[in-house]
């Protein structure tokens, strides 16, 4: 499986076999470390965004992404990772719907069923998840065995009232991981009729509220934001970069919307001068993102926060 | 006394700080990352295939049907040919032709923004699936009555976004503004009311296209954009005509 890992597209192509060997070594050494030290807990986060109803791989028709993606391969890969790793979270940053006839014919049922079969832990909503209206999304929720996380859409006056939740806390052998969802402004992007009385709340303000709640009050060890804002814009429009710089307490933003194939995750300094990592893996399930965090248990010692931890671009 | 009290407050604060920092049981000591390409080298999970197979069978039966042929690849990515593209020109002409059957009085068309055209139209066989992927949205065609004085704002939107799919419209882009405009062969007349073909999505302010949203005088044609395309391709095939498009200079840079 290691040979399928890649640090960055460009480097991978360049270095090929050498990289494979290095990755394999890196993996072994870190795993050995995790085994030796019982106070070290490893969490593996796997993520997708903007899968856009790509149930099957792109057809072999000479197009740019021909043969890539597909839920069956993603499921197999996730399954292999789950065998090796004890603590896995599988997350999606929205735009589950729209893009292949599977959506036009079945309205999102197949997408939700496949994600449930892969045991996704949570997803947020993208603008295209409103394409069949609130009713169209609501209708598919029975097929989703995972929560939809939205913190800055107020659905109180709509059909989706209580169908989504702002955040969820996952517990993994003593670790608490708080995950919340942030959506983009729907006006101008989604037909008014399709979002109805949904109220859009300021994403930066809401994200700060969520992150403070999760990290400080609910004592999460890691806070993850599933965002459909988009990676960055030439204008001042709110993006993941803007969000990262203007918030505190968020460790990781898993982004979407702009279909950005990031060479590698970006580490941004947040309001506290700490690291907020942004990652996004293109679209259509062409890639699966992976970020591993290693946690050390505090033994009653006062820990200086804000100290940079070691970040490696090798799994 | 005062000194003691402030010390006590300080101590309580310090204690609170210690508790707060300790209560989060773990801290991150290392992070590593990577991504996987989901490609042919990976095995597939047969359980997943089994789950979607019944859906796929029904879908394939409908979607794999070849309904026409295209002489050229009409690419969505057209940065080299902008402000026009083969796909934009083919698309807007095809949709306008179909709409004219339902309403003969249309001055020009902007049926979608180029962002709304989602994939390339391939060279060779064109299937129902190709059309669904090109236009996956359920958007409907609408004709809006727009005052001549307001048309310029729409044209300037087209200019400022480096061209959009249009038909029966010829214009040049100068400093992000539309100049030398010809609508259906005639210069823009501010005193005339124009009937413009677009979609309910754009009509509702979608993709930030200006003007349409405030207009109440409109006619819903009862035809989805995708159906217009499907009809056009099927009709061309029935007449033995291969689909084609050209860059005809409808939008140029001044």
UniProtKB/TrEMBL annotation, chain A:
Gene3D superfamilies: 3.60.21.10
Keywords: Hydrolase, Nucleotide-binding
GO terms, molecular function: hydrolase activity, acting on ester bonds; metal ion binding; nucleotide binding
Name recorded for this polypeptide: Twin-arginine translocation signal domain-containing protein
Protein family per UniProt: Belongs to the 5'-nucleotidase family.
Organism lineage string: Bacteria, Pseudomonadati, Bacteroidota, Sphingobacteriia, Sphingobacteriales
Span of domain Calcineurin-like phosphoesterase: 43-260
One protein family per Pfam: Metallophos
Automatic annotation (TrEMBL), chain B:
Superkingdom to which the source organism belongs: Bacteria
GO cellular component entries: outer membrane-bounded periplasmic space
Gene Ontology MF, one: hydrolase activity
Residue span(s) of domain 5'-Nucleotidase C-terminal: 66-213
Record has Signal as a keyword: yes
A biological process from GO: nucleotide catabolic process
Signal peptide, first to last residue: 1-26
Family matches, as Pfam families: 5_nucleotid_C
Keywords carried by this UniProt record: Signal
Protein's name according to its UniProt entry: 5'-Nucleotidase C-terminal domain-containing protein
